Amino acid sequence: MRFILIFLVSFSANAELEVIEKTSNYPVIADSITDLKAALDTASPAKIDDDVVHASTTYDIDFQFRFNSRSRVCEVNKVTTTLGLQYTLPKLDSQNDEVKKVWSNWFPRLAQYQHQKGELVKAAARSLDDQLTNLPEVGKCQKLKNQAEELAAKTKNELATQLRLLDQKTDFGRTEHAWLKDHLQ
Questions:
Q1: pTM
Q2: Which of 88, 125, 158, 168 has the most CB atoms around its CB within 10 Å?
Q3: Which CA distances in Å does 164 have to 55, 72, 151, 170?
């Protein structure tokens, strides 16, 4: 009697998530408490619409994948998802002790709020990477490409919604004590 042993092995696509996280600081020179907000407003390169903000978190999520096409089946072979994450934050240049005290109470909260946004962005990039890796095989590679692009668009839209909801929930960081004017009172 002959036995034929068949091994069915499922290999998931090889995935790589590359996170490139940077912080860009802009200098803020303030000699007094009364000058601090104006100095920040003048120095800040960050804007939302036409409004100056004191910090920002920007990102770019991109992906590439390779696929295998064999006998009318196309499957993902390798996924590389890249996240470029950029924080823009102020950096104080002052010798004034009052200014330094206000700054030391306010700035960590501002930075923490921006990093909270960054964590949402990283989670979305990881989710996209996982979803792309686990795309099921299909008949045509163009269909697989279309599915990947749809997943990326859906993930980015969901992320934009999450970030908008975070801003709404926290009044753009105010409930997190990330507004300077609340520390000046």
A1: 0.87
A2: 125
A3: 16, 43, 20, 10
